[in-house]
């Protein structure tokens, strides 16, 4: 039996200092944070989820409180058969709260984390990997190394290549005098079967993006991610899709119907939702399936700790297609501590196992120095 009753919800807020920030065109990430949720049912089974909160990092504390004070009391005692049904119901119920507070993103990410935990719990109760419960199969999941800073991209490529990565995403949007030399150095060193991607992090105006598009042609890019702010008019995205020789990628900063429309529009070739930012497993599964059906690549986006990373891996395995998954290659103790055992990287892919659910457990004993808040409901 995989139906269950939500009996207990624990929320943990963690913060880990880092010696070097992650740099993007919109700002930097000076520390690594995460908000994780543990849901336990009336039989004592449990599951884990992840709430997106990496920027601004101080938003993690607030999201932890949204989970504990607002969402957990509504979810406790609910009978769950299909987590997607509950996710849709709760989304409708708290919509007025999200609108009234002006914090639509915070409420969406908290619901996403809860949804993932419920799917993990359901799959654990059934004794099957999450990918299989979602209708897919356990397989090796292609990955790419992300988070390459503008001042050390080539050196980082050398380091992560030795770890087994074969695809590399360089952050750009710092001006052509910075961007182009870095890309040329990386491109010159690529080996057989290796690919280069870029992420502008919404750093250009549409006019700047159109000016830069011919300059990027020489790099034979796998994709150009978020060249402009995600909420620009559709006509501008259409113009950019025609101008760039590489496919456009996006989705991490879209929610709801906007994200579902993006999965089938004509300008995105790559769809990249964050499982902990909107939708959780329920929403991102639907987006991924729509994207693959439309002939696009579904490439889960995740730049945080290990629980969301493993949820992304199982979603990609379930959805199928030619996509690959983001793995942040910057130092982050929360990435591995929150996902034990951490997956093996082999031939540019994560090796998933037959372990039930997400197949991992957070090591909260080792992570204890990073726990700044813990809440319990139920």
Structure commentary:
The protein is α/β, with parallel strands linked by helices. The protein folds into 2 domains: 139 residues, Enolase-like, domain 1; 220 residues, Alpha-Beta Barrel (TIM Barrel), CATH 3.20.20. The protein contains 12 helices and 15 strands. Strands 5, 6, 7, 8, 9, 10, 11, 12, 13 and 14 form a 10-stranded mixed sheet that branches. Strands 1, 2, 3, 4 and 15 form a 5-stranded antiparallel sheet that branches. Helix 7 links the parallel strand 7 and strand 8. It is globular and about 60 Å long.
Using DSSP, what is the number of strands?
15
Helix content: 25-40%
Average pLDDT over all residues? 95
Oligomer designation: single chain
CATH architecture of the largest domain: Alpha-Beta Barrel
Share of residues in strands: 15-25%
Tally of domains: 2
What profile does the largest beta sheet have?
10 strands, mixed
């Amino acid at each position: 039996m995989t139906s269950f009753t939500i009996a207990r919800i624990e929320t943990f807020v963690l913060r880990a200092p880092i010696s070097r920030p992650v740099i993007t065109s919109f700002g930097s990430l000076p520390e690594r944070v995460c908000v994780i949720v543990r849901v336990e049912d009336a039989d004592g089974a449990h599951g884990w989820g992840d709430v997106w909160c990496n920027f601004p990092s101080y938003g993690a504390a607030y999201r932890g409180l949204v989970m504990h004070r607002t969402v957990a009391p509504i979810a406790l005692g609910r009978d769950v058969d299909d987590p997607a049904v509950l996710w849709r119901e709760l989304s409708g119920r708290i919509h007025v709260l999200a609108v009234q507070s002006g914090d639509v993103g915070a409420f969406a990410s908290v619901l996403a984390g809860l949804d993932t935990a419920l799917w993990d719990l359901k799959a654990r109760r059934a004794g099957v990997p999450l990918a299989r419960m979602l209708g897919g199969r356990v397989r090796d999941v292609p990955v790419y190394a992300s988070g390459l800073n503008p001042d050390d991209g080539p050196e980082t490529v050398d380091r992560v290549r030795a770890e087994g990565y074969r695809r590399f995403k360089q952050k750009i949007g710092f001006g052509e005098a910075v961007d182009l030399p870095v890309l040329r150095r990386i491109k010159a060193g690529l080996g057989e079967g290796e690919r280069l991607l870029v992420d502008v992090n919404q750093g250009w105006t549409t006019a700047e993006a159109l000016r830069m598009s011919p300059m990027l042609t020489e790099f034979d890019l796998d994709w150009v991610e978020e060249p402009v702010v995600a909420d620009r008019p559709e006509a501008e995205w259409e113009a950019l899709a025609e101008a760039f020789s590489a496919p456009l990628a996006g989705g991490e900063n879209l929610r709801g119907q906007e994200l579902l429309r993006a999965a089938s529009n004509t300008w995105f070739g790559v769809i990249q939702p964050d499982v902990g930012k909107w939708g959780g497993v329920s929403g991102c599964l639907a987006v991924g399936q729509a994207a693959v059906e439309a002939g696009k690549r579904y490439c889960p986006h995740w730049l945080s700790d290990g629980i969301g990373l493993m949820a992304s891996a199982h979603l990609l395995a379930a959805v199928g297609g030619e996509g690959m998954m983001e793995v942040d290659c910057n130092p982050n103790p929360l990435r591995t501590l929150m996902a034990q055992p951490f997956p093996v990287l082999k031939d540019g892919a994560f090796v998933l196992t037959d372990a039930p659910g997400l197949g991992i457990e957070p090591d909260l004993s080792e992570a204890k120095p990073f726990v700044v808040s813990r809440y319990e409901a139920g």
